[in-house]
Amino acid sequence: MSKLGNLGARLHRGEISYDFVGKRKIWYGISILITITAIVGLAVRGLNMGIEFQGGAVFTTPKTSATVAQAEQYAKQASGHDAVVQKLGTGALRVQIAGIDTGKSDAIKDTLAKDLNVSSEQINADLVGPSWGEQIANKAWEGLAIFMVLVVIYLAIAFEWRMAVAALVALIHDITITTGIYALVGFEVTPGTVIGLLTILGYSLYDTVVVFDSLKEQTKDITKQTRFTYSDIANRSINGTLVRSINTTVVALLPVAGLLFIGGGFLGAGTLNDISLSLFVGLAAGAYSSIFIATPLVADLKEREPQMKALRKRVLAKRAQSGAEGEPVPVGGAEAAFDDEAEDAAPAVVGPRGQSASRGRGRGRPSGKRR
After folding, report:
1. Of 40, 87, 236, 270, which sits 20 to 30 A from 183 (CA to CA)?
2. Where is the composition biased (Low complexity) (predicted)?
3. Within this chain, do residues 164 and 286 fall inside the same structural domain, yes or no?
4. 239 Cβ neighbours under 8 A, 6+ residues apart
């Protein structure tokens, strides 16, 4: 851990760095490939919507010796629809049948009770009408749209419109990947899934805003220096917050991984999968997009401005001149870059470092006083 902390400190000070912005075309290509895969998965397989969105019935049975496969077969024969059956920790079964007429629920419950050899009164039935499910789906989309609009407005005010656009692209990227994974895996989409999606969008914005805040602070007087372009300082901002983003993401992923792989996989608590998968995939995608998508995209948009184009020409010209004269091309922190002109204009100081040149004027005289 001390080595990781040391690495983070060196990245923050600009002693070492990785060229994230310079290799942005690679990251864009990877993101486009993943996004296309997610879209194809959505188009081909579609989402496995829960009864909360489709309407249907959920039957919870008492403890029974029937297997999940047997219960699925019994439910299909009783309703004429495919059923999703989950084994609960008590040995009971949760039988979910979507798209059925709720008026037929009593007949289906009686048939299930007979097939499973349990009493009909012991089976609990929860019914969801199709109109209510459609209303829930519409509200979920409305909430997501309002969230996006508010995020764009806030970022445009707090930072600038280019950062708002980049953050919006990153959020759409995260949502597309997460929903695509749901389509490919076949996990059920429930209201818990929607809650998970909204939660991971908040985490994604957190990482993105941390980088944007650092970038905004370091580029206040960027046009007053000639050492670094906007892309150079954007890259420094990513490197300076990289270890922090990794640490927060790993800490958030560990408990979610416990829910998904141990709770939902090993222990068989399938009801945890709907929210834990969206959190796990979304947190990872959010950390990726804040580093590899949002900030490089801001740098691309900013470099199109006339001021930044002129700055880039001055920086490249100075670097070319320094290289021709055999001088090292300046590297280091952006803070030093902004003091470049001030340092060049400062008068030369004679005498020991840290002392004024006038302090040695009286030396060698008997009294040590000035004349």
Report:
1. 87
2. 345-359
3. yes
4. 11, 12, 14, 16, 17, 18, 20
Q: 110 and 7: one domain?
A: no
Of 306, 332, 358, the last residue of a domain is: 306
CA distance 147 to 198: 8
324 HSE (CA, 13 A, CB side) = 6
Angle at 222 between CA 219 and CA 227, to 5 degrees: 120
- The one-letter amino acid code at 213 reads D
pTM of the predicted model as reported, rounded to 2 decimal places: 0.72
Q: Tens of pLDDT along 4-30?
A: 556 656 665 656 678 899 899 999 999
Q: How do residues 261-294 score in pLDDT, each as one tens digit?
A: 776 555 555 556 778 888 888 889 888 998 999 9
Residue 14 pLDDT: 56
Alpha-carbon gap, residue 291 to 351, rounded angstroms: 47
Q: What is the pLDDT of residues 132-190, one digit of tens each?
A: 667 777 887 888 888 889 889 999 998 989 999 999 999 999 999 999 998 888 887 88
* Contact yes or no for 235/20 (Cβ under 8 A): yes
